[in-house]
């Protein structure tokens, strides 16, 4: 994630932010110099005077205005004294008191499973504001194929401009929650600093996770997302007769809780229990048909150099098994370009494999040497110019496969979990809503003014693709 750190008050506040910045960089995140660049903003507040309190509130509002899509975490003295007031400020997603300040680098970690590059936020991350992106999409694609559900550009612009939440308003309840089930990783991928920074895999007890998910259900959360540094290794490190695995965790959560939808975040393409994909036919409608399987490279030679524990053939078979067992599966991935020693032939072979896999989306990164990793010392480091050129080519390919995957669903009906507040439209009645299908497709639709869709799952007809957003008609709205 890209994180912007800010503070007011005493020198201690500044020192604490410097320490946090170091911890975040060690964990693999990037600290940035402006709030506009950030996925996440952390603000350290002060309460030494009334002016400091007013300044804290004012600065949080300013940060939200500078970057309405960013998640804001507030900490420090004012946040400790007035946590409820702090939580009501626009954009605030997390309030951490002084006792939790040293844990902020861990508290923020679950967000990294969902937050991509800023260019992807509007269409891929669940809490972002998609309306600005929709303006660009409608402008680019125009009304040539206009249907009844087409939203005019003027309406979208007005919706985006009027989307700021009043300071004294109660924030909408959460629709989705991220459950960190384990931390650390036992793998030794040559490009990855996570093992160094996070240590070995450590899983939470199954009973505590059941309790947490059921608490979320009581709070009205509709979807739980299981996350971890190495989610597929969950449970194997537990002792005293508690050893288990991810398959059992999913089964227990769906059996012993009433969560409406359960989603899995990133899964390394190995170590899944036998019959893992049989979970989806067993739990139709509740276990989301979306898998994020990091590939990283599409050739055996590069996979070996990365110390990945799979081959192109085993990944291909895994995808075939998953698609055979899970109807309407959407598959996303992680990819690295420009890894040391990547030849033109390697890149071409990898491109062909990525095209074959039909990813709907991928996090694509140019290789960056990280001190403390084996790959940082590999020979044949590629020039930046070459990595950038290959990055653009791979982005274009995944955009093409992603569009094809989304087009498959036009005309179909799918359940959507709606989020945020429907934005009023100026030149037609109703409000514009945004949500995600069970298989992780971004959807927008207009519903009548009196209909409140927030945190509700409804069936929709996917009528038209505009860019990466599926415009839909809400059933019975």
Word description of this protein:
The chain is α/β, with parallel strands linked by helices. It has three domains: 2-107, 3-Layer(aba) Sandwich (Rossmann fold); 130-168 and 409-474, OB fold (Dihydrolipoamide Acetyltransferase, E2P); 176-407, pyruvate-formate lyase- activating enzyme (Alpha-Beta Horseshoe). The protein has helices at 11-26, 50-66, 77-81, 83-87, 104-107, 118-124, 131-141, 153-161, 194-198, 206-218, 246-256, 279-282, 300-305, 312-325, 344-357, 384-407, and strands at 2-7, 30-31, 40-45, 71-76, 92-95, 176-183, 202-203, 223-228, 261-264, 290-292, 330-337, 361-366, 413-424, 431-437, 442-447, 457-466, 469-474.
The CATH superfamily of the largest domain appears as tm_1862 like domain
Number of DSSP helical runs: 16
Mean pLDDT: 83
The best one-word shape is globular
**Spans of 5+ residues with little confidence (pLDDT < 50)?**
117-172
Structural class: alpha/beta
Q: Within the largest sheet, what's the order of strands?
A: 2-1-3-4-5
The percentage helix is 25-40%
Total domains = 3
CATH architecture descriptor text of the largest domain: Alpha-Beta Horseshoe
What's the β-strand tally? Answer: 17
> What's the CATH first level of the largest domain?
Alpha Beta
Alpha-carbon Rg, integer: 22 Å
Distance, first to last CA: 37 Å
- Give the amount of beta strand, in percent: 15-25%
